[in-house]
Amino acid sequence: AQTVTQSQPEMSVQEAETVTLSCTYDTSENNYYLFWYKQPPSRQMILVIRQEAYKQQNATENRFSVNFQKAAKSFSLKISDSQLGDTAMYFCALGTTSGTYKYIFGTGTRLKVLA
Amino acid sequence: GAGVSQTPSNKVTEKGKYVELRCDPISGHTALYWYRQSLGQGPEFLIYFQGTGAADDSGLPNDRFFAVRPEGSVSTLKIQRTERGDSAVYLCASSLISLAGGTGELFFGEGSRLTVL
Description:
The structure holds 2 protein chains of 2 kinds. Chain A is an all-beta fold. Chain A has strands spanning 3-5, 10-14, 19-21, 24-26, 32-39, 46-52, 60-61, 64-69, 74-79, 88-96, 103-105, 109-114. In chain A, strands 2, 5, 6, 10, 11 and 12 form a 6-stranded mixed beta sheet that branches. Chain A has a 4-stranded antiparallel beta sheet with strand order 3-9-8-7, with no helix packed on it. Chain B is 0% helix and 47% strand. Chain B has a single domain (5-101), classed as Immunoglobulins (Immunoglobulin-like, Sandwich). In chain B, strands 2, 4, 5, 6, 9, 10 and 11 form a 7-stranded mixed beta sheet that branches.
C-alpha cells in the first residue's frame, strides 16, 4: 500500500523568513512522482513543485525547493522569503507511473504567513 | 475551456436524494480523477478514468456512488440516496498521461461542495 504522511498539521512563519514543511511516504514502486500542491481558501489546488523519483537533483521553482531523500522516503518543501500570499494548505502527493496512476495525498499542513 | 470546470460549485440537498456532479476536464487530457475532500483533510481518491473506462474505482465508498465518462471527456459523479456523511467537497482533476512518460501533473477544478441536510 502507498501512503503519504504529513506530521505538521499547522505551521506559521514570519514574512520574508524561511519555512520547511515535512512529508514522508511509502511505496514499493521504483518509478514515481512526488508533488507539493497548494490550496488557498479559494479551494482550487495548484501545483507548487514536482520531483521525479529517478532524478537525484532536488527540484527548484523560484522561492520553492525540495529536499528529496529517496532512501529515507522523505520529501520536504522549503519556502524561502515567505510572502503573505503563501498562506494556504499544502498537500504532499505521491503518484506512480505504473499500474493505475493513482495519486495519494497527505492530510495537509496549514501554513500561515504572519506580517 | 482553459481549465477543469466543475458544476455545480455548491449543492445543498436533503438526505435520501439523488445528486449528480459534473466535471469538464482540460481538452485533450485522457486521464480524469475524482477525489473527495472533507473539512480539514486531504483529498481522498474515489475513481480514475483513462479514456472512457474506469481504470480504478477502488476508492468509491459503496454502491451508492457511481461515475461515468461516456465519451472520454466530461464525467459525472452520481450519488444515490445521499447521507449526511456524504457532505464534502468533491474535486475533479485531469492529467495528460503518456505511457512514454508525462509531466504527471494533476490539474484541479474548484470543486463542488455538497451539503446533505
